[in-house]
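Trying the structure run again after the queue cleared.
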Amino acid sequence: MEETLCSAVHESEGRQPPPYSADPDPETILQIQRVVARERRVDPAFIGEAERLRNFLFFTLLVDYQCLGGIKLTGVDRNHFTAVGNRIDDLRIASVSTALTEEENQTLAPYFWRYIHAPCNILGLPVDSVVIAILRFIKYRDRRGRYKGSTHGLLIELGPGILASKIDMDRTIVIPRVISPADQTRRQKLLQKVEVVSRQYFNEIHGATQDTQAYWDWLIMPEETLVSVQQSNPSMSHLDNG
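Done. Tokens:
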């Protein structure tokens, strides 16, 4: 069974993922990198995993920016990336209370190397961006289990700075590496959709600074959008465009 932008997909059997934060904490990213640093095998199978990851990211980008296209996500791949997300969260929970055992390292190192780190190396993608994309894929589902995109949820739950960061990362790093230069038509179509979403929420996004908390130094939100966000999330009522 394949998951498309308009087809229903049943929830996979077995363990359901726990509630997720939209973004992992920095220590989770570092822990994954420490785990996979122990594994340095070269295997032709990683090429296949890189293509699987490329297709997954292409699919999530199309949904995020409401760009209807021919990219599909099979039920097998949907379950695969859900399982990878579960392992990431298991690692986060385990590392909070205690250091990983040698046995856990021996199990997790090949797993994260095969499914995250090596494919990222092949595609030239930051590991943390891919980890975040996988966790958002799990978190932002509709009642039938279909991925519904993350842009609105990020804006309301985490604030305009996180959304602006995603938009900037997608258009400057992720899309150029996920969509081949030979596929200029689909690349330009998606970038145009990114610009539509950007203009919907922001007057301008200059790009992230070294201080990732200084969102208001590098983005300006249209006044009517800011008011709407503040009404949806009262905790942001202190924000302004100044």
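Residues 1-20, 210-221 have pLDDT under 50 and may be disordered. Worth checking whether this holds up in the mutant runs.
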